[in-house]
Structures are given as C-alpha cells and as structure tokens.
Amino acid sequence: MTVLDGIAKRNFLIIGRVGMDLSPTPVNTRTQNATEMMVAMGGSSANIAAGLVKFGCRAALVTCVSDDAVGWYCENQLDLYGVDRSHVRRVRGEERTSLAIYETRVDEHQSVIYRNNAADFRMSVADVEAVDYRQYGALITAGTVFAAEPSRGATFRAFDLARAAGLPIIFDVDYRPYSWPSPQVAQEVLSRAGAMSDVIVGNDEEFGFMAGDISKGLEKARGLADETARIVVYKMGPEGAVTFADGAEFRTGIFPVEAVKPTGAGDSFMAGFLASLSESLPMKEAVLRGSACASIVVSRPGCAPAMPTASDLDAFLKLHAGPTDV
Asked: Are strands 58-66 and 11-15 parallel, antiparallel or unpaired?
C-alpha cells in the first residue's frame, strides 16, 4: 500500500515508551518549591497514541513497563485513553518505568527525566514478532527506542516486519542525548532509522545532528526526501516548518499562543498531522493542523491530558489568529 493509503486506515501501531509525568501545581510553581503535583501519563509514543485516539483513530502500543505501581498506573492510563495495550509487557527486575518531573512554566523551565535502567528498553525481538502487522495501517516510532539494546534491535526487526506487511514507517527523530551511550552511536543509528522510514518528522537540531552539522540539517532533510522518504517535515520552532512531499517543498508558519510550558508540542504535532492525513486532507493543511495542535498543548498543563480532540482543534482554528507569515 502507499504511505497515504496506510495512514488512511486510521489504525496505528506505535512502538515506544509510556511513563508517568509529575508537574508541580499550580501553574508556574518551581519543582524546588512544590507541595502538590499533577500526575499524568507521559512518554512520547504514549502521548502520540493518546492524541491519535482523541482524533478518532485507533492506536496500539508496543513497549515494556515495570511490574510495580508506576507500571500499573501507566497500563491504567492507556486503558483510560483507549490505547490498545495488548502488546505491553510487564518486566520484573531492577528496571523501572520512566518518570518525568517537569515544570508548567517557560522561564527557567526545568525538566528532570529518570530513565536509568528503563523498563521500555527491555522490549525484545520476541515482543515485536508477536504482533500481527497486517491488521494495522502504519507503524510509528520515536527515536528514543533506538538508544539501547534490546529495544534497538527489536525496533529494527519491527521495521522489517512492517515493511514485509506493506506498512509505511513513520519516524519521529526525537533525539534525547541523555538516553544514548554517545553522540556517535546516536548519529549512526538514527541515520539508519531515517533511511528506512517513509515519513520523517524532526526539528532543525535533530536533522542537523544526523547530518553532522546543524547548518546541514535542511540539506539532510531534503536529501532524505529525494532518496528514500515520501514525506519529511523539518520543524524550526517559532520559524515554522519546511515540508518535503511528492517532489515539492513548502513553508508553513505557526499559531502563536501564550505558552505555559515547552513540552509535548512534538507529540501533539505528530498526532494532529497524521490524523489530518488520515482524513485525506491536503498535505499543507495537515501540517498546519499539526502545528495548531502543538500550540494547543503548550498552552495547557500536562501532555497526554492536553492533547486536543477534533472539536478542540476546530474551535482553536476558528478563534485563533494564524498561521504566521513565512
């Protein structure tokens, strides 16, 4: 099937982590001064899954969680959001489910993520081989899954199985240095994953990292679109994005908002972008709707709880100025 045909099935298999997020309350409270915390589901892949389900798509997550209260919390949250967790495996041992503590503030924002001996890195080849890829329309993953073994090898195996089943591969670069043994390993592995993907979404720093020089990021994105990928979205923060698709490229702006935090924007962009493509909307409109979703999430506390529904997005677009000129 083509990339857009797979996305149009509105049934996504997502590989990657789910975790617990803690945020000091009320808004603008520093962690060091916190007396109360908001708790919510987090983790890039889980956030994308929750965002897609809120748009009426189906999503299943493949990962591992620790067999303890935090892992059970994450399982319950996946159920709450309607994400299929048939392929979420509990692991027993010293591994722990990821925990993120981040502030709902922009100035001097602090995010602290605990991923030492992360449970999701225990995902194995057996886990991904147990999936029936034929029932899904597309596979999505974020770059963190490649940072350690056995998760890295398992995800590359999932790429092969998805390809054999005719599924397009959608890759959010999502480079997080603290997860990797070295920048050199990250550059090699993420570049390999990018070369195998049909849709690639990343920011200017991430493409620059893959290219070996921040100044070469746009060239790297354009090269991937020319050589292997069907769609590449090169995000530039407040400067908008450049999208490469079907041999053409175009610029889009953003929807300015009063942000309360910087986290969750990329996950929400991916969910809104793919959900829009799944409804056969034009590419440029899909990118703009994804950008609007990113703006909505940074203007609200939480990540998964802040993901908009279709009605939220439509209301935002009717009432909000934008996008910015490019």
From this structure: parallel
The Cα 102–Cα 111 span in angstroms is 4
DSSP reduced 3-state for 90: strand
Question: Do strands 138-142 and 169-172 pair parallel, antiparallel, or not at all (unpaired)?
Answer: parallel
Question: Would you call 321 exposed, middle or buried from its count of C-beta atoms within 10 A (0-12, 13-18, 19+)?
Answer: exposed
Residues in a beta bridge with 142: 172
Question: Is the pLDDT reported for residue 262 higher than 80?
Answer: yes
As a whole number of angstroms, the distance between CA 213 and CA 233 comes to 18
Q: Under a CB-based contact definition with an 8 Å cutoff, are residues 71 and 85 in contact? A: no
Q: Is 60 helix (H, G, I), strand (E, B) or coil?
A: strand
**pLDDT the model gives residue 71:** 98
Count Cβ atoms below 10 Å from residue 155 Cβ, excluding itself: 24
- Taking alpha carbons only, the member of 9, 13, 17, 2 closest to residue 174 is 17
- Residue 94's Cβ-count burial label (10 Å; 0-12, 13-18, 19+) is exposed
Strands in 99-102's sheet, in edge-to-edge order, are: 36-42, 19-25, 99-102, 111-114
Phi, psi of 16 (to 5 degrees): 145, -175
Domains of the chain: 3-319 (3.40.1190.20)
Give DSSP secondary structure letters for 311-326.
HHHHHHHHHS--PPP-
Question: Helix or strand or coil: residue 83?
Answer: coil
| pLDDT value at 321 more than 90 | no
Cα–Cα distance for residue pair 64/71, rounded to 1 Å: 9
pTM for the model stands at 0.97
Cα dihedral 25/30/32/36 (nearest 10) = 0
- Amino acid at position 284, single letter: K
What's the rounded Cα separation, in Å, for the pair 257 and 57? 27
Question: What is the residue type of 75?
Answer: E
CA angle 151, 39, 106 (to 5 degrees): 90
Q: What integer best gives the mean pLDDT of the chain?
A: 96
Do residues 141 and 297 lie in contact, with contact meaning Cβ atoms separated by under 8 Å?
no
